[in-house]
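Re: S-adenosylmethionine structure - here you go.
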Amino acid sequence: MMYNPKSLKASEFISHEEILETLAYAEAHKNDLPLIDSIIEKAKLCKGLTHREASVLLVCEDDERLARIYQLAEDMKKQFYGNRIVMFAPLYLSNYCVNGCTYCPYHAKNKHIVRKKLTQEEVAREVIALQDMGHKRLAIEAGEDPINNPIEYILDCIKTIYSIQHKNGAIRRVNVNIAATTVENYRKLKDAGIGTYILFQETYHKDSYETLHPTGPKHNYAYHTEAMDRAMEGGIDDVGIGVLFGLELYKYEFAGLLMHAEHLEAVHGVGPHTISVPRIKHADDIDPNAFDNSISDEIFARLCALIRLAVPYTGMIISTRESQQVREKVLRLGVSQLSGGSRTSVGGYEEAERPTDTEQFDVSDQRTLDEVVHWLMDLGYIPSFCTACYREGRTGDRFMSLCKSGQIQNCCHPNALMTLKEYLMDYASEETRAIGEALIEAELANIPHENVRAICADHLDKIAQGIRDFRF
Ligand code: SAM
């Protein structure tokens, strides 16, 4: 099928033939140093790379060029995201699912996993537990089940989540990771005030997709792949894409992922808000070794660095599927959002001990949010609990213009400091608070605009006095 990024047909904007040609082109040019140099030069302009260009860099074998690629990813990360890392947590609402995804323990044929769906009272208790940790931003997760988890249930949960105010706590942004749905349902999610709509493609390879999703509505490749277009038609302008690495060849997935981003940009004038990079993990009856396309930590890091170069304005998300060590590496190379203190079971947060009976995948990084915040600050990052953009209506292309205008340091930076201050006052351990206070003091000086700096300093004082929720 002819590649056409402007088409609304999955088979044309993710053209299998174009991906195969891209992989052949990349392989033929992997030692073409003048070409590689010119692509690296183009990447330095921070205007992104095409899927073909980025695919050449993915297979480049020259160590010196690879070192330059990593350095550039680090530089671009600093330029666009500074040292801020946005924090979030997943909230599992229900593991009822009618699909047959072969890599997910919630698949319908799994008869021994405990099935659970939170009542609104239970949602409220989970939210209180998450607020008490210090979270302000959640990603809600649910299996696909029109009877048990209809859109009305998801909407009720969103309403409950936004309504809970416990002590100084509040969930200020709810991102949603639920199955592909209709324009009408996306419009309902938009009206419910969601942040980003997240849907992982799992794999862009149609034949593999159909084998990996043998039964249930998710089996329909085109319906799934075209979901972001429906979401945007329904008014959601922040969408998050991703593939589940390990299912198919990573080179294929990488080209597909970038083609998807090119498509969204070509049709809707705005690329994906975020890209997630999950890798398959062990879970209940799922053995990751049963899938033979697993990737090494080194390739994983290279993928993250190249996503940074190819789509500089797209945030990158890493979950607790990855270990502390891997997370540390990819944070430097481009990751901008990180989950902390996560539990991947339905109703997991209100339990004292981590429950495993309904877990979607094993969590590698099991530290508490306070430990993660402490660790990030030790590494020189500012953990940010900011949700300002979406609440100020800076979504879609308006958020992208903020990035491109270079005003991030006068906007995101003070917002990060103020929300970190709230965290330190309300939730941090004594040690974390001490490190954080010193960090805020030092970072205040890095707000370029004098007026903004003065207003931020004033807001920080007010936060210390107990007033909450300032933002630029
Ligand atoms: N049910 C929704 C759907 O159909 O898209 C999405 C929610 S699901 C809870 C979130 C994501 O977890 C999936 O899209 C998949 O990529 C990932 N996932 C599923 N099984 C996994 C496993 N064994 N290890 C790591 N990630 C997994």
